[in-house]
Amino acid sequence: MQQKGETTIQDIADHAQVSKSTVSRVLNKSTAVNKDKRTAVLAAMKTLGFEPNLAARSLAGGRSMTLGVLTQNIGSPFYDALAQGVIHGLAGSGYSPIFVDGQWQQSTEIESIRTLIGRRVDGLLLIGGDVPVEQLNQLRERLPTIVVAREVVGWENQCIHVDNVQAGYEATKHLIDFGHQRIALLRGIKEHPDAIQRFEGYAKALTEAGIEFDTDLIYQGDFSGQSGVMAVNSLISRGIHFTAIFAANDMVAFGARLALSRHGMRVPEDISLVGFDDQAESAFATPPLTTMKQPAVEMGTAAANALVKLIHDEQYELASLPVELQRRESVARLR
Amino acid sequence: MQQKGETTIQDIADHAQVSKSTVSRVLNKSTAVNKDKRTAVLAAMKTLGFEPNLAARSLAGGRSMTLGVLTQNIGSPFYDALAQGVIHGLAGSGYSPIFVDGQWQQSTEIESIRTLIGRRVDGLLLIGGDVPVEQLNQLRERLPTIVVAREVVGWENQCIHVDNVQAGYEATKHLIDFGHQRIALLRGIKEHPDAIQRFEGYAKALTEAGIEFDTDLIYQGDFSGQSGVMAVNSLISRGIHFTAIFAANDMVAFGARLALSRHGMRVPEDISLVGFDDQAESAFATPPLTTMKQPAVEMGTAAANALVKLIHDEQYELASLPVELQRRESVARLR
DNA sequence: AGTTGCCTTGAAACCGGTTTCACGATAGAG
DNA sequence: CTCTATCGTGAAACCGGTTTCAAGGCAACT
Question: In this complex, which of B114, B225, B297 lies closest to A284 when CB atoms are compared?
Answer without folding.
Answer: B225
